[in-house]
């Protein structure tokens, strides 16, 4: 009988922790995040070669904006569990050096309309869609 209560207590604890994480990311994502690392599959993309420091700023009104290394972008977002749902995204359309465009292309695939995995670990925001992974810091 004690084992049954132990198991149920553990399950309830896991449920509470899971719900807390969703609420935490909803609150904690509202900040300016600077891109540190970016990879496409097994290929690391050198973000230091971009013409501008890539960043994203999530606002409390569910909007976001930033720079992808060359062009500015904007859109709307929602958080559900550990999923970032992007809608209404747009951006300016300047041409830049190939290194900047490589960063921008990968970053925009993550932030295109649809669902992206989103996690906050310490001061890092990790966004991942398919094989593309971006790590940002506050």
Topology:
Elements: H1 2-28, E1 32-40, E2 43-45, E3 55-58, E4 63-67, E5 72-80, E6 83-91, H2 98-111, E7 114-121, E8 124-129, E9 132-137
Antiparallel strand pairs: 1-2, 1-3, 1-9, 3-4, 4-5, 5-6, 6-7, 7-8, 8-9
Tell me the number of strands.
9
Helix content: 25-40%
Determine the CATH topology. Answer: Lipocalin
Strand content: 35-45%
Please give the radius of gyration in angstroms: 18 Å
Structural class: alpha+beta
What's the CATH architecture? Answer: Beta Barrel
Strand order of the largest sheet: 1-3-4-5-6-7-8-9
CATH class: Mainly Beta
Instruction: Give the mean pLDDT.
Output: 86
The biggest beta sheet reads: 8 strands, antiparallel, barrel
Counted by DSSP, the helix tally is 2
Catalogue the unreliable spans. Answer: 1-20
H-E order:
HEEEEEEHEEE
Shape: globular
The N- and C-terminal alpha carbons lie at a distance of 48 Å
Structural domain tally: 1
């Amino acid at each position: 009988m004690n084992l049954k209560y132990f198991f149920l207590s553990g399950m309830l604890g896991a449920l509470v922790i899971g719900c807390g994480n969703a609420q935490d990311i909803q609150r904690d994502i509202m900040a300016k995040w600077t891109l540190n690392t970016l990879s496409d599959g097994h290929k690391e993309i050198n973000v230091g070669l971009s013409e501008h420091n890539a960043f994203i700023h999530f606002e409390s009104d569910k909007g976001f904006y930033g720079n992808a290394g060359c062009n500015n972008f904007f859109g709307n977002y929602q958080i559900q569990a550990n999923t970032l749902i992007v809608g209404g995204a747009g951006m300016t359309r300047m041409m830049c050096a190939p290194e900047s465009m490589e960063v921008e292309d990968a970053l925009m695939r993550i932030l295109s309309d649809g669902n992206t995995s989103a996690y906050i670990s310490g001061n890092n925001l990790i966004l991942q869609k398919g094989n593309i992974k971006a790590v940002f810091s506050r």
